[in-house]
Amino acid sequence: MQEAITQLPLRLTAGPGRYWYVPTTCRYRTDDPYAVTMVFEDAAGETRWLLSRDLLLAGLERPVGDGDVHIAPARIGETMITLSGQEGIALLHTATEPLARFLTDTLLLVPLGDEEHHVDWDAAIAGFLTT
C-alpha cells in the first residue's frame, strides 16, 4: 500500500468576515483508491470525512456534489468545500493549488480508471458479509 499525504490550509467561514483556520490533513491510500480522507483538527479533537477523489477532482473545475458534500471553484485560486452533517454545515475554503497538487500525487499512484485494480475485492466482500 502506498499513500499520499498533505496538510491543507483550510479556512472555516463562520459568517461575513468571520473565519478561522482549521489544520487539515488529506490522506489517500492505494488500498482505498476511490476515497480521500480529510482529517480536521480543533480543540475538541479530530473529525474525519471520507470524500470521493473523483468529486474533489471535478470540483476543481465546476460545482459538483449531491447530498452532504459539495465542491466548487470559488474566488480565483480558491476551492470551496461544503460539508453538511448532523451538527450543521461547514463552509470551507482552500487554496486550489495545494489541493490540485495533492490530487495529482494521487493520480500518480492510481490513475483514473485504474482504481478497481487496487481494491482487494475478496476482503471487501468478506467485510460486507461479517457486518
UniProtKB/TrEMBL annotation:
Keywords tagged on the record: Cell cycle, Cell division, Septation, Sporulation
Source superkingdom: Bacteria
Alphabetized Gene3D superfamilies for the sequence: Sporulation-specific cell division protein SsgB (2.30.31.20)
Subcellular compartments: Cell septum
Stored Pfam families: SsgA
Coiled-coil segments on the chain, per record: none
Protein name (database record): SsgA family sporulation/cell division regulator
